[in-house]
Amino acid sequence: MCLAACASTPAGLLETDVKRQIESVRSPSDFATCVAENLSGDVQLRSNEERYWVLRSALGTVRHRWDFIETGSGSVAELRSTGLSGSGVDTVEKCATNATRR
After folding, report:
1. Distances 85 to 21, 50, 58, 97, 100 between C-alpha atoms, Å
2. What is the pTM of this model?
3. Could you give the CA distance from residue 99 to residue 34 in angstroms, rounded to a whole number?
4. Is residue 67 helix, strand or coil?
5. Edge-to-edge, what's the strand order for the sheet holding 61-71?
6. Which pLDDT value is given to residue 7?
7. Which of 91, 41, 97, 98 is closest to 66 using CA atoms?
8. Distances from the Cα of 25 to the Cαs of 21, 28, 33, 69, in angstroms?
């Protein structure tokens, strides 16, 4: 998988700073799939079977990356981005709270 190479952009996605966290009772795969299916624009879902990522691009450059990490009670989505604008926070929040949304 080329996540590190793919996320090496001027957007600074190699930074480990988390801009936003959203918790859910959903599994990481279910949470990430919901987000990827409901975000508009250029969106990619990637996984290494342990972790999931949703990448959102603008003009061919990844601008936002959501990491979906398993917790004891579900999962947490962590946003790594240059800012919240266009990151899809509203969609991630909806997917976190609505287990039937797809």
Report:
1. 15, 28, 12, 21, 26
2. 0.80
3. 9
4. strand
5. 20-24, 74-81, 61-71, 52-58, 42-47
6. 45
7. 91
8. 14, 9, 14, 12
Determine contact, residues 34/101, Cβ cutoff 8 Å: yes
Q: What does the pLDDT read at residue 8?
A: 42
Instruction: Report the alpha-carbon distance of residue 61 to residue 63 in Å, rounded.
Output: 6
Residues in the chain with pLDDT values less than 50: 1-11, 100-102
> Residue 31: left (phi > 0), alpha (psi -120 to 50), or beta?
alpha
CA distance 98 to 6: 30
What is the pLDDT, as a whole number, of residue 27? 94
Q: With contact defined as beta carbons under 8 Å apart, do 32 and 50 qualify? A: no
